[in-house]
Amino acid sequence: MAFDYDKYMRPGKLPHIWCPGCAHGIVMKSIIRAIDRVGLDKDRTVIVSGIGCASRMPGYVDFNTLHTTHGRSLAFATGVKLADPSLNVICVAGDGDALAIGGNHFIHACRRNIDITMVVFNNNIYGMTGGQFSPTTPHGKLASTTPYGNPDYAFDVVELSMGAGATYVSRGTVYHAVPLERQIADGITHKGMSVIDALCTCPTTYGRRNKLGSATDMILWFKDNTVGIKAAERLSPEERAEKILTGVFRQDIKPEYCEEYQKIIDMAKGA
Amino acid sequence: MSGKEVFYQGNEACAEGALYAGCRFFGGYPITPSTEVAEFLSRRLPRVGGAFIQMEDEIAAMASIIGASLVGKKSLTATSGPGMSLKLENIGFACITEVPCVIVNVMRGGPSTGLPTGPGQSDVMQAKWGTHGDHPAIALAPASVQEIFNETVRAFNISERLRTPVILLTDEIIGHMREKITIPEKGELEIWDRPRPDCPPEEYLPYDTSKGIIPPMADFGSGYRWHVTGLNHDASGFPTNKPSLVQPEEERLMAKVTENLDIIEKYEHLTKDGAKVGIVAYGSSARSANAAIRLALEEGIPVDFIRPITLWPYPSQPTIEMAEKVDTIVVPEMNLGQMIDEVQRCIEGRAKVVGVNRVDGDPITPENILEKIREVA
């Protein structure tokens, strides 16, 4: 039987604002299926976002939803989670939102290991404002503000998250929607800060400018240019260097922030 | 007032007042001269089952308290000038989404880093106009340690009842000064909570104003699933850019203040027979003004006095009354002239207005003010 998305969609809120060919819908559907797989209670789930294309996603889905200021989703979400640790808190953000203007909140949420699941809709560009380069735009690529090619080098979301202390870190793609759903589900059930780097595509403001083909071509590109971290072990270093690694990079059990704070409450009440 | 007597610093009184008002969440970032508010609450909040968090920056601190308030917790942050500049972004978010919260700004001197350990009153216009876009502004300016306690309670009460951020403007002098205060017994001061919905969740419209201009607010997690956005929105909470919906919503946000002056406005107005000089002063400058008025009377110069305790919205009516009686109004403030503009605006030329202004990091002394009184009397 086909999956019933209607159970999680708000009636009357479609069509969405995303351009034809945008892959954000695939990530949204992966999140919905992951939530269904885990069996979260809609009343007890909060989805928080910042500003940008990806950040419009909470408006379409039927949860407690919080569309905040640019880059600040994790900071708002930290307040929500610490105020009521029994709530399930999921953040969605684009790459610019999560890693540029929200970069400080990102690394500190990772460091605290607070039980929030952060899904980065990583399409390498600021789409909503018309295609400016972001912290994940590859070196040399064209954007509306890098007309001669991007002089910057990109963040690796997985390396950044692990370096900052997130305890569940994975990378999926919109071509591999089933593993992406599984990663998001694992991130939600994981106790601690989870980061899912969801590679997706912006044919309108990134693909077209960089001559990456059609919307479908861009999604198919992930098929040929990514490799799972297990399979990558069989590749030569030269072969591996040409691929983007996907899969679960870290799944560690470490003290979670709200649980640690509960110990402080217990200690202070006893004092 | 019965209760427990303590010898408190202003910042401690603020934190104690917050707890009395029911504050159960504090998100902050260290900054002089407000840090004692955070330190006090880091000790006390967990004892009452609340939460304290030191965030990674001022922006995050402001964001965290809005998040906590959406879950239903009364929330506070405290900062000073440079931090206030950073918080303004999310204060605007709290205004348009109508999320109650209290922001303490213990004012210090100078633009930028300025005088971190010196007093100032340079953020009074920022408190009104700081965040971009038209928005309601409420700021309270206590002048003693006891008043900091009481006004912190009132800040929470107003914020809850009107569903809007309230700024408590103190300054380094009263923030760090110690005075004996009485912490009232529980129940002695009235505590207000935000209106919450009683309709079935499926009928809940978060910005439905059919029953009044302050719509009930549901806690996240309580079964009322709603959408919160900083975009202009309709009664259902979802974004709209329809001119016919945006204009009345923006006007309603302002009306929440203008139609509730009875619970917001607060001032002292002291008059003396035959006074031809008046003073308008707030916060720690009002303390020096009080002394100057006493000294002037000893010299035979009667002086009227208005002390706005609520700074925004500004108490226009008593100021107009003062202007109709006196020839000159003196406005002492630790800035180069901010509230003096507001005094001039509301009296529309009925009296001459002169300032006494210091921004050198020292307080305005009674002698500074007395000198001006003698000059204009």
Could you characterize the architecture of this molecule?
The complex is a heterodimer of chains A (271) and B (377). Chain A has eleven helices and ten strands. Chain A has 271 residues and is α/β, with parallel strands linked by helices. In chain A, helix 1 packs across helix 6, helix 3 crosses helix 4 and helix 4 packs across helix 5. The model of chain A has no long low-confidence stretch (mean pLDDT 97). Chain B is α/β, with parallel strands linked by helices. Chain B folds into two domains: 264 residues, Thiamin diphosphate (ThDP)-binding fold, Pyr/PP domains (Rossmann fold); 109 residues, Rossmann fold (3-Layer(aba) Sandwich), CATH 3.40.50.920. In chain B, strands 2, 3, 4, 5, 6, 7, 8 and 14 form an eight-stranded mixed beta sheet that branches. A five-stranded mixed beta sheet of chain B has the order 11-13-12-15-16, with helices on both faces. In chain B, strand 15, helix 12 and strand 16 form a beta-alpha-beta unit. The longest helix of chain B is centred in the middle third of the chain and has 18 residues. Chains A and B meet through strand 2, helix 2, helix 4 and helix 11 of A and strand 2, helix 3, helix 4 and strand 10 of B.
Give structural attributes.
heterodimer, A: about 270 residues, alpha/beta, Rossmann fold, eight-stranded mixed sheet, two-stranded antiparallel ribbon, 10 strands, B: about 375 residues, 2 domains, five-stranded mixed sheet, 13 helices, 16 strands
Most extensive protein-chain contact, per-chain counts: A-B, 41 and 43 residues
Structural class of chain B, please?
alpha/beta
Overall mean pLDDT of chain A stands at 97
Question: How many domains of chain A, as an integer?
Answer: 1
Task: State Rg of chain A.
Answer: 18 Å
Helix content of chain A: 25-40%
The largest sheet of chain B is: 8 strands, mixed
Please name the CATH topology of chain A.
Rossmann fold
**Rg estimate of chain B, integer Å:** 21 Å
Quaternary state of this entry equals: heterodimer
Physical arrangement of strands within the biggest beta sheet of chain A: 2-1-3-4-8-7-10-9
- Beta fraction of the residues of chain B? 15-25%
Approximately what portion of the residues of chain A adopt beta-strand conformation?
15-25%
- Give the CATH class of the largest domain in chain B: Alpha Beta
Return the CATH topology of the largest domain in chain B.
Rossmann fold
